[in-house]
Design goal:
- The complex is a heterodimer of chains A (about 100) and B (about 250).
- With about 100 residues, chain A is mostly helical.
- Chain A contains 4 helices and no strands.
- Chain A has a domain of about 70 residues.
- Chain B is an all-alpha fold.
- The chains are: A mainly alpha (about 100), B mainly alpha (about 250).
Chain lengths: ~100, ~250
């Protein structure tokens, strides 16, 4: 197996690169269709929301600390919105919450 | 063109570095578990680190390790990688528009290499068109975080001290929320999209049949359906789009 590992990794890397690079390199002009433009504009909001919830609830040691982290992230994102502060704030709240569990 | 957009490459690189820090922290913590898995299937720490340098895709790397462990062949590797990572195709489509026609081919190829969920997230959130140096900045801190975490996980075979590891794991989700919540505050449409997406994602994780669908496909299905519905019902107007406000009425 050890002999083939790098070859396997290169195959995976090339495949992954093709997936990542094809649209980015082929679609170089601004798309004219209002529907597709709107669709692509909304894509990040849906993907990120789908990836966040409910996955965040199982990201920590317990449901309680996870909910605390989720609530903290929601609150800081709403009030402040700074990327760094939201991420660190959520971590700190989870860290603190885990002391009580 | 906004004021931020007109700044130079150095400005964007530094901004990318800064926004990449929470990503690097989250990656570092999450990658430990990946490294442990690599160790368990017999990969060396160096091989594990190389896989993180080349692939930087967490579900994609687990899948790749499964193929390596079973030794089922290169075609199997291609197919598995395609299926597990298909969502990047969608993200790359969205980024192609965020990049704008001015972005040169070389930059497009370089940016493509480091499209991950997180870097796609922050790149989508910048005001106006994307400067590739923003991605380079973010990737140059996030990448080492990911690789170092994988290497140490494979070397030590243990996770970070429990509480620290678990709290750092939440950084990536916090970051996602920092991207989607502020626009949701400004636009009722985006608020609706975010809420519907979270609800649908939750339902997909509990309903019979739906919960059997892999995470990668769940993301694709829900994105096509929800973003498609939103685009049909609430087409974005040019002006609103550049102001990052969605189709506010």
């Amino acid at each position: 197996m050890t002999q083939n590992v790098y070859l396997y990794l290169i195959v995976a890397a090339v495949t992954l690169y093709v997936i990542r690079a094809l649209p980015m390199t082929l679609i170089r002009k601004d798309i004219k269709s209002p529907f597709i433009r709107s669709f692509l504009y909304y894509v990040p909001y849906v993907t990120l929301a789908v990836m966040t919830f409910p996955a965040i609830l199982s990201a920590t040691g317990s449901r309680i600390s996870a909910w605390a982290g989720f609530a903290a992230a929601l609150l800081i994102a709403y009030v402040d919105g700074n990327l760094f502060r939201v991420a660190i704030g959520a971590c700190l709240v989870v860290y603190a919450a885990e002391f009580y569990i | 063109m906004s004021a931020e957009e007109q700044r130079g490459n150095g400005f964007w690189y530094k901004k990318g570095l800064r926004d990449g820090i929470p990503i690097a922290m989250g990656y570092f913590a999450v990658a430990f578990t990946l490294g442990i898995t690599a160790k368990n299937i017999g990969m060396t720490p160096v091989q594990a680190a190389v896989s993180s340098m080349l692939l930087h895709a967490s579900a994609g790397q687990y899948a790749a390790m499964t193929v390596i462990a079973s030794g089922t062949g290169y075609l199997e590797m291609v197919m598995t990688t395609l299926i597990v990572n298909l969502r990047y195709l969608l993200m790359s489509c969205a980024l192609s528009q965020k990049a704008g026609p001015e972005m040169k081919m070389g930059h497009r190829m370089a940016v493509s290499h480091y499209i991950t969920d997180e870097i796609f997230g922050i790149a989508s959130a910048v005001e106006g068109k994307l400067n590739p140096f923003y991605n380079y900045g973010a990737a140059s801190v996030a990448g080492p975080g990911w690789t170092a975490g994988t290497f140490l996980g494979a070397l030590l075979g243990t996770a970070l001290p429990d509480r620290i590891g678990r709290s750092l794991g939440v950084a990536l989700y916090g970051m996602f929320m920092a991207i989607i919540i502020p626009p949701a505050k400004k636009s009722r449409i985006i608020f609706g999209i975010v809420a519907a997406s979270m609800l649908a994602s939750y339902l997909f994780s509990v309903l019979p049949v739906a919960k059997e669908i892999s995470e990668g496909f769940k993301i694709i299905i829900l994105t096509v359906v929800i973003a498609g519905f939103a685009a049909w019902k609430f087409p974005v107007h040019e002006k609103a789009e550049t102001e990052e406000e969605g189709g506010e009425q």
